[in-house]
Amino acid sequence: MLRFLCLFLLAGPALAQTPAVVPTAQASALKTYSLRLRPGDDLRQQLTAFVQEHHIRAGTMLTCVGSLTVATLRLANQEGPSVYKGHFEIVSLVGTLSVNGSHLHLAVSDSTGRTIGGHLLDGCRVYTTAEIVLGELPEVEYRRETDPIFGYKELVVYPVPPAPRKKKE
Asked: Which positions make up the signal peptide (predicted)?
């Protein structure tokens, strides 16, 4: 508790200088999809194709387990990809999915248990399987808009307007 209080007191001046940002939150029902990728499939490309085919405006990775022979990641604070070849277990795949752009992070471990993670990029090849459960939030739309503070395209959440009612004839 004392550590928390000290951190709070030390961070106080920095927090006071940060502009107040009110997060947007939108509620939605959840629709789920289950799928399996096969050996040789590109993990990111298959997810992107699935999102496009099903017109998913707002989705989330609920779970993914499986294995890869190639893991292609963009590591923290790096510009380009890092490519790892071997046999890897998928220990985590998390993020948001949308026809407007997705943001996914992958963690994999090797035969010694060494784990590495970063942004999921094209080039991750399935070894035996990738068992995936995706969630879709049909009442929400995810968009990527440039954040004025950092300059990166970041998530902005919008409500989906209700579909117009059809007139009775």
From this structure: 1-16
Domain spans of the chain, in order of start? 27-159
pTM of the model: 0.82
> pLDDT of 25-56, one tens digit each?
889 999 999 999 999 999 999 999 999 999 99
Using only the alpha carbons of the chain, give its radius of gyration.
20
Structure tokens at 140: 């929400």
Residues 35, 28: Cα–Cα separation, whole Å: 22
CATH topology of domain 27-159: 60s Ribosomal Protein L30; Chain: A; (3.30.1330)
